Model the fold of this input.
Amino acid sequence: MNEYVRLSPEVAEALASGEPVVALESTIIAHGFPYPANVQCARESERVCREEGAVPATIAVLGGRLAVGLSDDEIERLGTTPDVPKASRRDLPVLAARGIDGATTVAATMAIAAMAGVRVFATGGIGGVHRGAERTFDISADLEELARTSVAVVCAGAKSVLDLGLTLEYLETHGVPVLGYRTDAFPAFYVRESGLGVDARFERAEEIAEALRAKWAMGLDGGAVVANPIPAEHALDPAFIDGIIATALAEAEERGVHGKDVTPFLLARIHELSGGASEEANKQLVWSNVRLAARIAAALGDID
Ligand code: PSU
Ligand code: MN
Done:
């Protein structure tokens, strides 16, 4: 492991003894929810992970170190400090050189998880190909990371702020399996179906672990998307959420938001426009993903 990685004692012990570990990201804390929902979501994610018998490893950059496993105070710090930089793969060396904090995206969290030897990661939604990417070239570094880094990302698909069709095309081109958990449909975050499909459907966490083990044992490096639809009782009405997403997208265009600011801007506007409804749905889908990730991590450990 390189000198920049800092494991918490609990994560170090779990990895050393082969216990299941689940990575969790921190952009969701700094930019994914307003305070205090962000800190509450992160804490409850850790609790759910432990309840399922896995050790949570929330990942962030702290004082320039790649921290794997955060204390409660560190989670609070990321959730309350204004303007924590959003850290994707390209930002990690800059933050390390400056010795400052950063909230890691899916891409950066995957990269750091792989450095630490953590292979399963739970989040809400992945980044993807933005609508209008043929003009803007705005394609999330999350997709490139999925192409190269051997970590499975359990998510509720992606938000339809993105072009989900192009996102799936990109994943196909780069050889990233999209595995549906009890679904044939690629989920669209707040809603269970996007109108697009997954590559394969699995009914049990153990079968997903078997597919992951096979991929990596064959030497096929790179990640996988495990798509877990939001629990039906927490799904939002598609017309309601589509209207809000359309408004948020129009505002971003009008204000000329671009680059790394696009996703945080859209996430914040969706929460503001939909009030508590999207916040509750978002939390519930994250916790559901953490549960599944913990089961996959445990099953992977049993196979090895
Ligand atoms: N999508 C969400 N919630 C999130 C993100 C995306 O529904 O919190 C965050 C994740 O950290 C993701 C990042 O990795 O935004 C993608 O940003 P970009 O589109 O700039 O790559
Ligand atoms: Mn982008």
About this structure: The pocket of manganese (II) ion (ligand 2) is lined by residues 138, 140, 260, 262 (CB under 6 Å).
